[in-house]
Amino acid sequence: MSLxxxxxxxxxxxxxxxxxxxxxxxxxIRGAHAxxxxxxxxxxxxxxxxxxxxxxxxxxxxxxxxIDVSNPFLYRQGxxxxxxxxxxxxxxxxxxxxxxxxxxxxVTRYEDIMFVDTHHDLFSAEPIISIGPQPEGLELxxxxxxxxxxxxxxxxxxxxxxxxxxxxxxxxxxxxxxxxVLNQLPVNxxxxxxxxxxxxxxxxxxxxxxxxxxxxxHKLAYWSDVAASPPxxxxxxxxxxEAFDVATDMARTLSLLWREKEARLAAGEExxxxxxxxxxxxxxxxxxxxxxxxxxxNMVLLIVGGNDTTRNSMTGGVLALNQFPDxxxxxKKNPALIPNMVSEIIRWQTPLxxxxxxxxxxxxxxxxxxxxxxxxxxxxxxxxRDERAFDEDPDRFxxxxxxxxxxxxxxxxxxxxxxxxxxxxxxxxxxxxxxxRFDHIEVLEEPGYVQSNFVRxxxxxxxKLTAKT
Amino acid sequence: MGQITFIEHNGTEHVVNxxxxxxxxxxxxDNDVPGIDADCxxxxxCGTCHVIVDQHWIQATGGIQADxxxxxxxxxxxxxxSRLSCQVTVTEHLDGMVVRLPEFQM
Lengths: 469, 106
Fold this sequence. Notes:
- The complex is a heterodimer.
- Chain A is globular and about 65 Å long.
- In chain A, the strands form four sheets. A five-stranded mixed β-sheet of chain A has the order 1-2-8-5-3. Chain A has a three-stranded antiparallel β-sheet with strand order 4-12-9. Chain A has a two-stranded antiparallel sheet with strand order 6-7.
- Chain A is built from 17 helices and twelve strands.
- Chain A is of the alpha+beta class.
- The N and C termini of chain A lie far apart (60 Å).
- Chain A has a single domain, classed as CATH 1.10.630.10.
- By secondary structure, chain B is of the alpha+beta class.
- Chain B has two helices and five strands.
- Chain B has helices at residues 24-30, 66-72, and strands spanning 2-7, 13-18, 50-53, 82-84, 98-100.
- Chain B has a five-stranded mixed β-sheet with strand order 2-1-5-3-4.
């Protein structure tokens, strides 16, 4: 949908399409922002929930119907294990009728999640995959939240960015950047692993995928953080004005990048393997710039998808090895375990807690009757700790766990993570390079946790390195 | 019952014995053929047991369902004769078949 539509409702469609193609995208977003402000002042906007943190009760004191796993403080307060264990055991397909995000079903067991994820004929990914809606006026169109066949067309246009040829080329680049970052770290003194390693490495990678100026890579991380944390969508900390400001800046910066690429291609330059070049090379996406919500949606998808996930797995791996020191010893003795450990890190961390669907018809799932139109949340974070699927104590971090690769963190079915192999490669290389240099990474205090029901991440984690002797 | 040859992307060949009724993916996994990840365990839901069937054998592997077509559409290495090996049932008609593995399982 065009951003201008609410402003120009009575104008006919061809005129609208023409307008969106001519008026710079960031002006359109400004316009939508102004319109949203008017709506708010007139009391016509949708109310936005406000979250204040209070200590959550022990789950054993709650009635089943009062359990609300959408609470954005559940992860931060370390209570999610017990809440989800109770649901898995007592009410695996659970209805919460009264959350700040509206009513929703929680699917908590591995097998049931697999069923929902692989039945896109029964469960739609539209209009969005967070529990709550996107900010009003900023409803982006992205293929993670589209059903086939439209999904297939859009995904196929961009998945070449992680094709084998590209991955092979990226490996040496990732290794040299990882080495650079690790070589500059202080030894024997405290520093924040999140800032200095996880954020820096993932934003460098994103800059490469987008052919974005490396010295401005901090913007990508900031945009991603804001895009993933509207309170009404995920219970996060961004606000509507900030979201519109970021969208405006993104639109301006990325459409400039697009136009520059377009001009260089027109002048006969060989197309690169970055995302924008790929979109420009494909007939179905060549004019995407004229469809702002779709253009922005694809950019946000790649930026969020390649940012929070890998970033928090980079931090989570260090934390896990500190909580399970025997595994650290096992790893040092046998670095050949790194690839399997990478899968185990992604299982243990589950950097995105869930994906949301909407039932397209009445469906009976594990005894519960889900009605057409109901929201259905597949809690990957719970399925990855399901005792029925992971028989070796699923809460433990075991780097040589036999079936670590079957984790749900990438999703299954047509929406399976597009960047999974790139993510695994980044994490594998990070650990290979860490083991070459350091004998120990000590976590010095409890890390800071992100406020969100979606992103399971870290705001800071103080560590101290010991050099290899 | 017979044999099927899996050829890795680097050219390494693996000749495995097959059993009637099992899936081609299971035959590969049981015989430790590297490069068949099968993350979803055979649910046609991950695309990591992708094989490229020799032209002469593609008919014998049977029909392809929409689900499999959809998952194959997600891999940049898809070819005309691509199959998900978890969706191919081994029969005596496949004795002697040759399949190649892609560079990456996506």
